Amino acid sequence: MGNLNMFQAYMKKPEEKKIVNKKIIGYTRVSSKEQSKNYSIGEQEKEIQEFAKRNNYELIDIIGGTYESASGDFTRKEFKRLYDEIKKSRNKPYGIAIKFINRFSRTGAGAITIVHELVEKLGVNLIETSTGLDTTNLKDRATIYHKLLEAMEENQERLERTIPGMKAFLKTGNWLGSAPFGYTIYGTRVNDYSRLQPQQKMVINDKGRILQKAWQWKLQGERDSTILKKMAEFGLVIRKQKLSAIWRRPAYCAISTNSLLDEPQIGNWEPMVTVDEFFRVQKLLNPTKGGTYDTDT
Fold it and tell me: Of 30-34, 55-59, 213-217, 244-248, where does mean pLDDT reach its minimum?
């Protein structure tokens, strides 16, 4: 065959891919209020800014900056804003920069589908600034997909560890989550340290006392429009949609219907109305069906 080196000059060289678009958007997120207070968001933003500077990217925006649950992607307002802005943008950025992939999503296959759409259909890449992984590289992309699956597994394992404790907490008559409008929570699971105490206590606050009057006005047959005016005279102004939702929440007669419970649970807090009064209001709201109510989540 002769010397193959003679054919070296005919070898085709791989084309170097030059990145013309240097614009990136940063995304930050934490999954709890506690993390948002311990400078985690600030650290993520600083990391993204320094990454952009080191690699000569133009950082056009940082979206997020708050705590949002990892349970669903498009239920997160900031994540949806990021996605919608990129999708409607005529001049797409080169990529989305995020410190850790698990901050982007913990939905596993759902997250991979979103990243695939961003990369293949919109031409927008995902970059992990802590490692330099970038979906333009196929090997990096596979690693990022693997990390997204790992994040989902970690989230599921965390839930499996915490859900039994949350259920036990609810079954002893405690409230889980933000307090219903008109109540203030004291206990161990609070973000305001002035309300920190060993045992949970949920009490009716000043707004709640006005709302308690509203329940009685409703029982007397007053229209919501009239009730809203009366409440405003006492200094409490709320939207009619909010008042309508309040009438349908069993929490106001000290009953928890949290989705983690197998059956309704009597709560340890002071009710604004009795159970009988609650169902009388339901009957007023829906005379033909005897009333309906919303569950607490």
Answer: 30-34
